[in-house]
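Input sequence (235 aa), recorded before submission:
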Amino acid sequence: MTDRRALVVRGGWDGHHPVETTELFIPFLEKSGFEVRVEESNEIYADAEVMAATDLIVQSVTMSEISKEAFAGLRSAVEAGTGLAGWHGGIADSYRANSDYLHLIGGQFATHPGRPPAERPGDETDNYLSYTLDMTELGRAHEITAGINDFSLTTEQYWVLHDDLIDVLATTTHPVQPYHPWHRPVTSPAVWTRQWGAGRVFVATPGHSVDVLEDTNVRTIVERGLVWASRTRRP
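Predicted structure, token format:
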């Protein structure tokens, strides 16, 4: 028996594989008791009846646009208790022109520093770096990341602009390199949560491709984050 409803909304830039990556987690959601609905357009957010019945939104829409009506529906749903969760650009680099969306999420992709110029082959791996996700004190105790130690990945390392209303579970630090213009290491949130009205928001910045999401640590964090973000009580 399913007693919760999850809405998977996917689209935007194909380079983040919105179909393939969301398909990784649909079986998990179903096993966790969710009835899953998949939509290829964010216009579903404007349907108040659907949104009121949704306990969790899993969004994978990189860049793209969102209408005024769809965003209003999304924000209202989260404020009323619907959870919102996602990974990488599907949630942290969506709807760049909508400042209210950025306010809702609490962190926005700014860039992903690349490899030394002489080592760039001219494809997406130009921006693949080996880096570490460092658990915060909160992250070591939080149900999403408890028991997960600091770990390393080789993929895009997100530099995130953020505010202080997020609860950071893991960070990543961008080092100083002679080919970059900054002059001291910069630490960005890599996994965070946010309380917004009665709703919960979960963001993990790793997830550029299927293989990254299949990493044991990343997959565990995302799966726990989806469950955590889901509506905690019905009105």
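Checked by second reader. The radius of gyration is 17 Å.
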